[in-house]
Amino acid sequence: MSVSALLSALLLLASTASASHFYGGTMTFDPRKNPDGSYRVDIRFKEAYHSCDTGDSWVCGSGNCGSRSTYVSNRVDSSLNGGSWCQTEGVMKRTVSNNTPFQLHKSGCCWIYTTVTNSGNWRLLTHIDLGERSDTSKPNRSPVVTALPIVRVPQNCVRNYNFLSYDPDHDKVRCRYGLFSANECGMCNQPAGFTLDQSTCTLSYSNALSGVYAFELVMEDYPTQNITLNYTAMAAAVRSPFSNASSNPSLSKIPLQFALEVEAPAPSCSEGEYLPRFLHPTPHHGEHLQARVNQEFEIRVKATATFSSITDVVFSGPLNSTKETTTTGEYVINWTPVSENFGQYFPICFIAEGQNGSRNYQSEMRCVIVMVEAEGPRAQVTCTKDKMLVSIERATISGIHGDHLRLNNNASCPVSSNNTHVFTTFSLNGCGTQVKETNKHLLFKNTIVTFDNPNHIITRKNEIEIEVMCKYQKKSSITTRFEAHRPAINFTERGFGSFSYQFEFYQSGTFRNIRDPNSYPLEYDVGQPIYMEIAPVNIVQNTEVFLESCLATPYDNPNYPISYPIITDGCGVDGTVNIYTSHQSSAKFSMEAFKFIGQYDQVFISCSIIICQANNPNTRCAQGCTNITVAPSSHVHKREAAIQTGSHFISQGPLRLRRSTSLTEATSPSLNLNLVFVAGCVVAVVAMVCGMMVYKSRRSKVNYKLLKSVEI
Predict the structure, then answer these.
(1) 65-79, 500-514, 659-673: lowest mean pLDDT where?
(2) Could you tell me the CATH superfamily of domain 489-683?
(3) Are 263 and 153 in contact (CB under 8 A)?
(4) At the fourth CATH level, which superfamily is domain 379-475+690-697?
(5) What is the pTM of this model?
């Protein structure tokens, strides 16, 4: 045996060893002509095995395959439910001297063991034709598609899997089973109980034996009208719309291979019972979404099931995409396109997984197409411990008047401008800033929008939306990020004048000695009484304060998505609450200390108060505890006399659970058990990651489309 033959055999052996337990793979390509007449082909391929394999052992099967210039690869997603797998994506750039067709292939042993067809070899093959199309004057681009390594269906449930093939040249895409004679597959099975609609690339399951099936499909694109492919080194060729496979060669063909497991029957096939059902804000199957170069793009996925707990969302997306979970049960798929992705299309597919006992159930598979648009406005976002500072270059948003911009449709939070920049500074807790939490980060988001009239809440000229965001890492200590003792709040009401109210914690129920402001954050044992008072800094004659509501949050923001109600409509809703005062100038109350479940132990208390005219039976203060919310709108009563203010929030904290040597020592029998089931944790912001901006342009893109039904 020659040295070259021996080396090839060793390489094949290494490839086979590293690529065992195959779950499937795909490949897509996007070519472009270089100024020197050569061609660059960007090739993306996904493969899945029991463990992550980031190697490249693709072989040139025929034609001039050129040379590989760059190659990167990394993990996309992995799962431990229903068999461990890891899917990776490799991005390979090849330089080819001419535009004649060529083929790449990769093969090995073995498919994952299947109880139905047994295990066998696998083979992936891609046909790339760089002939210049007469309709676009560019080389042909392949369809874009992706698939999850393994999908699962209960034996008694009918299901359709649509692979949402999209062709950037708007060709017609078809799918078929691979042919052994064309070296397109390894085992080349066509399992009974499944139907493949070739024209829509939809695989339908009806009934089959339990077990794992290997699907080795081929995806092809055909023009919608006759076109000519022109070559530099061979005669031109005509390509026609599809009529039958034997007489119509396709423009390209790419592999689409995956595993499908038919599991034991489920108690119910109705989505939302055992099988997870997607909820808003999950995008619908087939949606086309836009991303921008160098700006983080996200897909938020949420699912529910009555008899299963959602354990994961598995996905297949582009290289360097990531996944995070939020405290509200959403899964966030993030990806930041780079400049070379401009104008390209990327598929993302995902499935929600639920668990009931030892059984795992999957939702339907949804896929979306993401188009990468040009970079938006150039902006600098600076994040501090309590503010966001934004500066945008005006030249990058030409045509927008600086005086017609504001934050989140909030007229009280204007955006300023000069000849070169548009800029604004706002609190992380104000101007409609939204707080999102994942398992790793805290995100504060706001949006700069255009408007017609500052007094209107709608606009018909909303040409741009610029979303700005500060992203912070979470740590276990909060004291370095939040100011300690909160100052008094000041507000002014017509008919009442100016007020200052202070929220204080006391040593005991006598309410004589306040906790030292320098000792914040205050430490408590779980179950220990907390004594609180909201009182005016200076006594205001003929007024009384009404404690309308109080809630606890793990962050100093009453609108934070995780909260626990303490007082609602003047009524104590926590079983340990005592309200001591009524119809007086201050509000005193107490409750037992608690913590949010999780590895953190910080709590903020936020209350809403109303100031009323004393001893007036027509005020909200006089009504006291009620289950009917009465809007505090009576600023004006008989003869225009003001009798009460609006609601004003005041907060204090943080409170910290006193650390102890054991869980037993930190637990009190008097702890309100309702708190044990609060789903959430206190977060601490100690390390800023970055400031980000997402730009959405609506200019010259106004159209009408049928609204889809909303899932709730």
Answers:
(1) 659-673
(2) Zona pellucida, ZP-C domain (2.60.40.4100)
(3) yes
(4) Zona pellucida, ZP-N domain (2.60.40.3210)
(5) 0.68
